[in-house]
TrEMBL record:
It comes from Ciceribacter selenitireducens ATCC BAA-1503. This is Metallo-beta-lactamase domain-containing protein. One of its GO terms (molecular function) is RNA endonuclease activity.
Length: 337
């Protein structure tokens, strides 16, 4: 059997498959790239050929422009392609709309690159599908035993409670533009919140795209400067990318209450530093129980850990009798935590 390192190994540009002559989520422009999902740390513009799911290709075009690559090829979940003798298939990762794990296979050796993934329920994307493999490559963004993410529905209930308690205050919800923002809106709708939700301009195209893919986000309106004075936003929910809340845009809302939806909100210090009044622990990554349960379920021969808190997860695997190593990949800053 071929050695896994021969099939796929880390390089300066990212994970590389010499036999297939392609990279997975390269951080530098390359001739051929397989892209797991649309977050900017994984999906960079400037590659020659890009292979990804239809939704990821659409999202890349929305975010990077029509010229985001030389040529594109869409692959369906479960479809199998052969590139220079290497079998390739994409499987749902449950991270954001279109997100995929990439399975790479040659001479009986199968490696699964999971990209970013999560196991908790998310109505805005296809759920993670376990794929049996010899080597499982996992992220470890929240790879420490202290990280336990609560039920996102309970976190949204805390936002609804705050809206009831402070009906005069605008609730400014910071959420990453791809995935988190749509998930928060969808969770609000599923919890029965049917008033208009105001969105920052940076979210409008992605929200419209999610809607075009059958994800109902309800009555969304632009939170623009001119349409409404500050009084009009009293008691309203306004969703925007976290960066928008530091600039002039945010200062126009009436008595704003700062909310931030992120897995990092488990760390009180981070919420404090950002001046977040209502931290919501809603993550698009696995927490520690999800990471370890996934590895237990898959029983891979080896685990490679790409980014995040690599050491703790590597140690945990070794204690379970599973060979593991950190890949020390750089350039992945978990845009959508
Ligand atoms: Zn991501």
């Amino acid at each position: 059997m071929i050695k896994p390192e021969t099939l796929l190994h880390p390089t300066q540009a990212g994970l590389y498959c010499p036999a297939g002559d392609f990279y997975v989520d390269p951080i530098r422009p390359v001739e051929r790239a397989l892209i797991t999902h649309g977050h900017s740390d994984h999906a960079r513009p400037g590659h020659g050929k890009v292979l990804a799911t239809r939704q990821t290709l659409d999202i890349m075009r929305i975010r990077c422009g029509a010229e985001f690559c030389g040529s594109e090829q869409a692959i369906d979940f479960g479809e199998r392609l052969v590139l220079n003798g290497v079998g390739i298939s994409f499987h749902p990762a449950g991270h954001v709309l279109g997100s995929a794990q990439v399975a790479v296979e040659k001479d009986g050796m199968r490696i699964v690159v999971s990209g970013d993934y999560k196991r908790s329920t998310d109505p805005t994307c296809a759920p993670f599908e376990p794929v049996a493999c010899d080597v499982f490559i996992t992220e470890a963004t929240f790879g420490l035993p202290v990280f336990h993410h609560p039920d996102p529905t309970d976190e949204i209930a805390r936002l609804l409670t705050s809206l009831g308690q402070f009906p005069q205050r605008s609730h400014l919800v910071g959420a990453y533009a791809l995935g988190k923002a749509q998930r928060v809106i969808s969770l609000l709708r599923r919890s029965g919140y049917d008033r208009p939700i105001y969105i920052h301009g940076a979210l409008s195209k992605l929200c419209a795209y999610y809607e075009s893919q059958g994800i109902d986000l309800g009555d969304l309106r632009p939170a623009t400067d001119d349409e409404q004075d500050a009084q009009g936003f009293r008691g309203a929910v306004i969703v925007g990318p976290p960066s928008a809340f530091n600039d002039r845009w945010a200062r126009r809302f009436a008595d704003p209450l700062s909310v931030f939806a992120s897995g990092w909100m488990m760390v009180r210090q981070r919420a404090k530093q950002r001046g977040v009044e209502l931290p919501l622990v809603i993550s698009d990554h696995c927490d520690w129980p999800e990471l370890t349960a996934t590895i237990t379920e898959l029983k891979p021969g080896q685990v490679w850990v790409t980014h995040g808190r690599e050491e703790a997860l590597v140690r945990w695997c070794e204690l379970q009798g599973i060979a593991a190593r950190p890949l020390h990949l750089v350039g992945y800053e978990d845009e959508g935590d």
